[in-house]
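Assemble and predict.
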Amino acid sequence: MKTSEQSLSNAVTIERKNFDALFASLIKREYQIVGPTQRDGAIIYDIVKSSNDLPEGWAEEQNAGTMRLKRRNDKALFGFNSTVQSWKKFIHPPSQRLWQTKQSSGKPAIIPEKSKKQKLAFLGVRACDLAAMGILDKVFTDSPFTDTGYRIRRSDILVIGVNCTQAGGTCFCASMNTGPAISSGYDIVMTEIVEKSRHYFVVEKGSKVGEEIIKELPSAEANVYEIEGAEELVNKTSSAMGRKIDTTNIKELLSRNSENQRWQQNAQRCLTCGNCTMVCPTCFCTTIEDVTDLTGREANRMRKWDSCFTMDFSYIHGGSIRPSVYSRYRQWLTHKFAAWHDQFGTSGCVGCGRCITWCPVGIDVTEEITAIRMSDKNNPSITLSKENK
Amino acid sequence: MTVTLEKLTKDIVPSQEMIPEYFRIIRTQKNTHDTFTIELEPPKNGFSFAPGQFNMLYMFGVGEVPISISGDPSDRNTLTHTIRAVGSVTRAMQKLKKGDFVGVRGPFGTHWPAEESKGNDIVIVAGGIGLAPLRPSIYHILSNREKYGKVVLLYGTRMPKDILYRKELEQWRARFDLEVLATVDRAASDWKGNVGVVTTLIPRSHFDPPNTVAMVCGPEIMMRFSVQDLLKRGVPVENIYVSMERNMKCGIGFCGHCQCGPTFICKDGPVYPYNAVKDIFIKREI
Ligand SMILES: Cc1cc2nc3c(=O)[nH]c(=O)nc-3n(C[C@H](O)[C@H](O)[C@H](O)COP(=O)(O)OP(=O)(O)OC[C@H]3O[C@@H](n4cnc5c(N)ncnc54)[C@H](O)[C@@H]3O)c2cc1C
Ligand code: SF4
Ligand code: SF4
Ligand code: FES
């Protein structure tokens, strides 16, 4: 990674009217471009062909349990924050065949799913989602087994990040130390700046490919005002973020509070619908099922996203390990914020806020963790750690 | 925008560890009313494992389940599994015959410290089907018998009809270098053996607690009380090992189902030093 001084000197500006040159350059390199697009009242990630496909002038209003699109008073291309789904579905597909088996007279045959190269450019990756991709990398390639499918999908992805210049209603990336500024893992990073008379991007390279692409675009060397202006916007985003949590010793906090009353109170509200796990960019759990054809001579092993909120998830002969709602919510939250540190050396939460927005009853992880901290009987330093923040 | 996401990300090879290989059944044996043993022939190069490890066994068109290896680790040409028929996959497996095929991937997970415990006394405490994952350890210890001190096997089942490996237990009982005690929870009046839970055997058996390594496998409640009684006799807590069980879909840390506290049973277990999982025995629904 580069130091910020180096990147300073490397930054260029690209005017909005020249932005489509980026698409041309990516298409020439045979990338399929995946980016944000507005559809059915939401912003989603899908194939995009030009800046016409981007959600120009749209923002979302997010709060616990609600999201609606609204018009901005400018024409920003990236004037929104967390989309419903993250990029997870592209690198860890919701449903995937692992292999197929066919009955024959002797030994049945096993046909592993064939590999097909794909070259994707992710356009508009936010800091939180980029951090989430780094976390999935740890889960699937460094744990100690490697999911080869994941590795292949992931290795051909070009990341074009976008720094956030405003926080969404449920964001708390600053508390999780993942954003709003992108610090690593990108090929190109941009900050979008919309002024009265000028709409442009401050752009920096993060890799060799990124550098080559930028070279092909009509650009100008960024001056100190443009660079500092961009940085200031991102810094303001951080300080204006509405939600926060105190993560001091969070592992120990959750571990000693496994019987905190709050879990039971929360269980009165949680519907165990699993929405939070589906939208979370780091939730990786899956199940594997057999799908047989009508003759029963052919079976497909299908891997599908699964959720720790179902009873089946922990079923073993005799019953579920976690039959109560409280134990399942506790499992999810404790895994994200505590166990993940033991398992992968990082938090499992990046603070994207999706689970808060998409929870039908508006359960908010930041509120839950704060409530547990406030009612933590064994923590003499509650007030101390709060002052430190 | 006609390309669907589904199309973009399909058609990519999964990890090698996710793809089983079919092994042919060379022998099946009924152990009890609901438990059976299958012996499989590894297709090539034999099959190596350490006592306590498990395989994911796949039944054509039905599904895949984690099953411990119950055979002799020194026999690379036979892979043995002892299975209790409890649900869809295991019941389908009950119908398997010689010549049929079972998908196998593995071995996965941690092992009993059988090799590492040379020079110590050994206490093996098994409950029900829990004897199956411990049998490879017993084989290993018996084939290197002179390297160990006293060796004790304590075995409890619910009823006499649940006792596994009866013939073998008789042979082991006849050995002068192995103490075998068995008990049942409940029995009719014609039962001549011990009645009571397996923990009642712990104070009666002969071993030198400070120099003993204990391996415990059975239902969680049975393991919990066995560990308490082993501790009471003075077995050092760091010498006690247990084997945990959770739902498993992958065996290699990808599916998340087997999480037990902060660990994954498929890669951090199933065999754990008791200290590493003692919270699980105390806390509810972890
Ligand atoms: C590490 C390990 C070693 C095991 N070793 C043995 C063994 O040597 N012999 C033996 O008979 N059994 C063993 N089991 C238990 C065995 O895996 C289950 O009995 C089996 O999965 C039941 O599947 P089913 O489809 O027949 O039952 P169903 O009740 O139809 O299963 C429904 C679902 O729950 C899962 N499930 C149900 N019970 C269990 C369970 N106890 N553990 C994990 N998943 C479960 C199944 O995989 C399936 O996905 C072991 C389990 C683990 C985790
Ligand atoms: S916390 Fe909310 S989104 Fe998650 S399972 Fe409960 S009700 Fe559903
Ligand atoms: S737990 Fe919630 S806020 Fe954290 S990464 Fe997952 S969806 Fe985002
Ligand atoms: S069995 Fe899938 S993570 Fe352990």
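Chain B has two domains: 13-108, 115-242.
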